Amino acid sequence: MKNNISDFELIEAYLEDSLSKKETDEFRKRLDDDPEFARQYELRKQTEKLWKDTTVYSRINKNVKQAMSESKKSNYYKPYYFAVAATIILLLSFYIVIHFLGEDVFNSGSSQMALKDSTEQINLLEPQIKYPDRKANIKYINEANADMDSIILDKLRNEKADTFIKFKTSENIKIEWTSEETGIGYIFVYDISSDYLLIKIPVQLSEREFIIQKSLLKKGKYKWYLFNIDKTGYFEII
Amino acid sequence: MNVKTDKEIINGILENDDKTLRIIYKKYYPKIKIMVMTFRNVNIIADDIFQEGLTRAIMNIKAGKFEGRSSFLTYFSGICKNVCLKELSNNKYASPVIDDIAKADDEQQNFELIKFVIRLKDSMDAKCIEIINCRFGLDENQNTIVEHKKTGNVRFEKIAKKLGIKTDNARQRFKRCLKKLQQNISNHPEFSEYLS
Fold this sequence. Notes:
The complex is a heterodimer.
Chain A: H1 7-15, H2 21-33, H3 35-76, H4 79-101, H5 109-125, H6 146-158, E1 165-167, E2 173-176, E3 184-191, E4 196-204, E5 209-212, E6 220-227, E7 231-237
Chain B: H1 6-14, H2 18-37, H3 46-62, H4 72-90, H5 96-104, H6 111-122, H7 126-135, E1 138-139, E2 144-145, H8 156-163, H9 167-186, H10 191-195
Antiparallel strand pairs in B: 1-2
């Protein structure tokens, strides 16, 4: 064993594989016999592992960020969006032309309905999701949808609840529905005890279920409502 | 490769396939965003949670910690949820109840320590970072890890040649920088856990 060198140099020599076979055997024996030396060696190895983990983490994080950025960029330039934009422009032009010609075709019932539906469709494509301020029951809704949310709050507040499905705090809460509908719906969750509309989340109706992760809601009784297919349910967290 | 199944996603991650990352983003980002939005009263940005969560998931998968007992989505959203809970517990307005949950559900082994070392690196001398990377066989500029047989450490003679300095200077510089690094990370509460 190289007696005249420090433990640091000895460990480094071992790690770069420059010790002779005899020195390597002595090194390993000392690791077994000398706890302080073994601790220094372990510290050195773990520092290296941590440093390498940090490098790997930074590289992966950078790649993920780049992939996210590229995906967003490709979304922005999808031909679909140009098609939607072109359709909207065409519809607007059509409306303006008819308006200036004095032919108020939108007075007919079916045309009014068509315009209303297309407007709602555009709103649903960009769902407004915010959450209530603790100081007020509803203080979070964009102007366009304020009435709808108030109606749903009143509906849930006044609706008689019958059977509450029980969940433990350690369980995910599964909200299920049956419907042939597709597209976007909204799930509202109402906390009976605090009288708050707690959650308003857009969901894909075709998925037929929505999971609220465990531990997010306190113990208590809740009502839920799935907007635009008119489904209601009740659950209790015990 | 059109990645669809969990198995293909895992394989894509293991093969460092960038396309897989983009597919994961397109397939799962909306779900993660909805999950993030269920956290009330705290301003958490879904993009940050997704980026951090996916980085951790990939690290775990590469380290063989994903056993495939649940779907990739369940696993990934669980990690993202833990990142959210950690954010909440770091938030001074978070309730004590949320803090308890964050501690109980914390499965993010050593990631806080890794992030601590990243911050530490930012404040370190560039020459120290260079010599440590050289010794550990890392080429940070190219973001690749140079594989070395047996121990993975590069000899000081080679490092000295690369950096144009004397071998003994390379050894002394590494010793000084390593000691400083060890002193700093030893103070982190998670490092003793990491050592064990």
